[in-house]
Amino acid sequence: MNNFYCVMTFHSTYHALNFEKVLKDLNYEVRLMPVPRQVSSSCGTAAEFPCEKKEEILKICLSNQIEMDNTYKIESQSKSNWFVKLINGKKE
């Protein structure tokens, strides 16, 4: 069985912290975490969020002027990890 989770990356830690505050104030389940290696080898902060809430969360980011980098859907498997990059609701 595959296990998916979604993460959003940001241009700065400030934007990640702002994202977390706004979404938690709206009772969304979000968790800050290091950027997964599947996404980037550089350091940084990402936010994990429920994949089924992606469209709602993107609208909230837009209305609250939260600057983000990209959104990713990451598949966790027992021995390997794969990810799908999501931009503007489209899979690449």
Automatic annotation (TrEMBL):
Q: Which Pfam families match?
A: Se_S_carrier (PF11823)
**InterPro entries reported for this sequence:** Se/S_carrier-like
* Residue ranges of every copy of the Putative Se/S carrier protein-like domain listed in the record: 5-73
Instruction: Return the protein name.
Output: DUF3343 domain-containing protein
Q: Which organism is it from?
A: Alkaliphilus pronyensis
Species classification: Bacteria, Bacillati, Bacillota, Clostridia, Peptostreptococcales
